[in-house]
Amino acid sequence: MLEEALGHLVRGIVDNPEDVMVSERSQRRGQCLDVRVNPDDMGRVIGRAGRTASSLRTVITALNDGRGVRIDFLDAAER
Amino acid sequence: MTDDQVQTETEVGSSESTEQVTKSGSLLEREGDAAADYLEGLLDIADLDGDIDIDVEGNRAMVSVVEVRAGDLGHLVGTKGEVLDALQELTRLAATRETGERSRLMLDVAGFRAARRAALTELAKAAIAEAQATSAPVSMEPMTPFERKVVHDAVAEAGLVSESEGEEPRRCVVIRVS
User: Fold this and answer.
1) Which residues in chain B are contacts of A68 at CB distance < 8 A?
2) Which residue in chain B is spatially nearest to A6 when comparing CA positions?
3) Residue A79's pLDDT is what?
4) Strand B60-67 versus strand A31-37 pairing type
5) Is the peptide bond before B145 cis (omega within 30 degrees of 0)?
6) Which of A13, A33, A57 to mutate to probe the B interface, most B CBs <10 Å?
7) Is the Cβ pair A58, B42 closer than 8 Å?
8) Cα–Cα distance measured from residue B157 to residue B9, given in angstroms and rounded to the nearest whole number
9) Which stretches of chain A drop beneath a pLDDT of 50?
10) pTM of the model
């Protein structure tokens, strides 16, 4: 559910929603979601002083019953 | 970057800044509709029940997610409204993308802001009375931009003046008789 929720939240705020991809990676310490966006949208999802990225983390953590979720933002070309 | 560490807040476009551009009713409606679509999508995915009300208050779109059962949407508010503020930020960005105009919509979830507004208005009234009685400036506790806006509005209504002083997250309203 978190992957889908994050995909929805990000697709709604970028210019190239079709390029958004979210994948889950389990780590030793909890969950990590990788979000890939079009390079032109990178600024959008980070926001000024990281404010948008921080808002995304806050909402996703809340949906995960307060358990922290790491979110990494990647350019769609990165692997 | 660590979670929840970003405290930077500019007054531009915040709930507190003075409205300078008059927005047409149809733009505010489009903003509200875009916000409702964005929020409905999220509620569906998270399997949460909520009714969405759209209203225009002054010159601002007001979008409220109302609980169907009490307590259902507490997660989307957070203990001090921090999740609500984050969700409002994202919803504004979604509405801005849809209309092409910067959105300053106000989001409420489960009546959190409405209750906060009522409590703050009472606090402001007491501080206004104190300022009038003593003719000295009265400094309020640090507040979020939304909270400061509620106090500024109450002060203006009482015919006094107020301004915000200090830096986030310790920024607070100071009330003066003139």
Assistant:
1) 3
2) B42
3) 56
4) unpaired
5) no
6) A13
7) no
8) 26
9) none
10) 0.80
Q: Looking up tokens 């203006």, which residue turns up?
A: B156
Judge contact between A28 and A40, C-beta under 8 A.
no
What tens digit of pLDDT does each residue of B94-120 get?
999 999 999 999 999 999 999 999 999
Task: Name the one residue in this structure whose structure tokens are 């079009």.
Answer: A38
User: Which residues 93-132 of B have a C-beta within 8 angstroms of A?
Assistant: 93-94, 97
Predicted confidence at residue A33, as pLDDT, reads: 95
The residue count of chain B comes to 178
Kindly provide the ipTM of the predicted complex, given to two decimals. 0.93
Do residues B59 and B23 touch, judged by C-beta distance below 8 A? yes
Instruction: State the Cα–Cα distance between residues B149 and B131, nearest whole angstrom.
Output: 18
A77 neighbors A38 (Cβ within 8 angstroms) = no
On the question of pLDDT at B12 being above 60, the answer is no
Cβ distance A1 to B45 less than 8 Å, yes or no, reads yes
